[in-house]
Amino acid sequence: MAGFNPDDMSRFDDFNIFTTSYKQIGSYNISLNTIYEQGLTSVSTSSQPIIIRFHGGGLVAADSLFPDFFGYWLLDLAKKYGAIIISANHRLLPEANISDILEDLEDVWTWVQSSLPEFLRIKSQGKVRCDLKQILTAGESAGGYLAIQLALNHPNGIRTFLAQYPMVDMKSRWFTESFEKSVLGVPQMPKSVIGNHLAKARDGASTTKDEKIVESSDPRLDRGGLMFCMIQNGLYQDYFDIDDAKQFPIDRLENGERLPPAGGLIWHGEKDSVVPVDGSLRFKNTVRKHNPDINLRLLVRPGDHGFDSSARLTDEWVERALEPYVAAWLA
């Protein structure tokens, strides 16, 4: 899409990237990337902390290594503290539904717990080890939703979370009703875009009529228009189950579930035209009511969706915001 350069992978120049499948659906492999700074070893420390990161794209588009969505500040964080980043793909809407994606989320967690130590041993020739007790989750937009969901799933196994403009209020009319919406200035798209996409996907698929089509990677953001169409036409309601509280972080908190004791950090642009800041405000208020002892901070900054695209860890506002959560992660 205009403004993005999926071929510019230079932000990863100082990192090793190892890609593997963490699950298989039929003959289709869903992948994740293990990323750490070149030259990293665990000689001077017993093992390295972990960041489990999920990408943005509205649950519809993008990829775990789509560079423009992968924050410089997060790579800086990994460098500074010798962290290992696990950046995972998952099934995508509209071919999948949210239940499928949340199943993938848990399978990422299982892979980290059961397979990451041996995977690192092999890939690093024994030089790099991981600390399964020092885990934070992170993600932007849809990835922020998944980072929070995983933190709710494992509040005793995840130290804290860092979520950027997360999609935490998926029952709001913004995501469930069709009306004129200026999303990053993209003209209103007809609902038929989704139906046409699914029909074309079905025609080109090798699956049988009763089998689901699986799509989990969009490295060039070719599906970006599908995301805009989903938002503008309120189509997310077709892929979430309104009666399943587990799909909605705010419902989970209201039902008594808890975040990690150290809480987490959310930052959000005050003029966000993709994921309105109202959702993060509602999430914060829900945490205050139902998890009042949790250290959740919502930092509202000037700008639209992705306002932090060039932010670095050395930026004063980033460093100060992260400080207590990094301390909790590494404690």
TrEMBL record:
For this entry, the protein name equals Alpha/beta hydrolase fold-3 domain-containing protein
Pfam families linked: Abhydrolase_3
Ranges of residues in domain Alpha/beta hydrolase fold-3: 52-177
Molecular function via GO? hydrolase activity
Whose protein is this, by species?
Exophiala bonariae
- Signal peptide positions are none
Instruction: Tell me which InterPro entries the record gives.
Output: AB_hydrolase_3 (IPR013094), AB_hydrolase_fold (IPR029058), Carboxylest/Gibb_receptor (IPR050466)
